[in-house]
User: What shape does this take?
Amino acid sequence: MEVIKEKSLFVEPVRDQEAYRLLCSVRKGVFQQEFGMTLAPLGFARPPEGLHLIGRLGPGGKAVAALTVLNTTGNDALHSQYGLCFPPGASVARYTQMAVLKKYRGRHIPLSMLFEANVRFTAPYGIDYTWMIIGAQQKHSIFCKLLGYTPGVQPIHGEMGISWAMVKKELPRNSAESTRECFTATETTASRGAKDDPHNADNLRTPTSAQLHVCVMPLKHNEWTGQ
Assistant: This one.
């Protein structure tokens, strides 16, 4: 069995069609083959419109994780769909379709992916707010709480069940070092508190259709798989 050490996870942006194929393959393995969900594929995004990231087992190694960050600035229709409203002129980005292959969960890979997205996209492009959709039972999870995400005004009643839009006011521009410190502290605290957190995915029973919307999978340490 392959063993992931923190330093061996290599996260890189998708720059070509081959890397994009690997990104789609990871998502297919998680969403379609494992959970029976069909999500609309995301186009080949490039900054400043968005950024695809893949996590590998070392440079050039096997792709085991995927995450996309999309610039949704000014997309009031989309924000309204999820009950969100941002200040005029605010720049906004969404983290979406996080996927980690089952064999490699429980190693804080989503945290590493989010950190890389923040350093490569959110901070450099001066994003003021980020948001993501999570399953209802994860609204108060350690993962969301320590990263500074707060739930929207009301739950979302969609075809996949009850979910929440989680929003965060990002740190000022050029704050990559502060962001790094924040994510490091979050990972440490999450490791200590995961066993006792009633919202930790390890403590949940088999996911229901509502939980499958985004976040509550049989993961470890409050990791999330997101739509």
In short: The helical segments are 17-34, 76-81, 109-122, 142-147, 176-193.
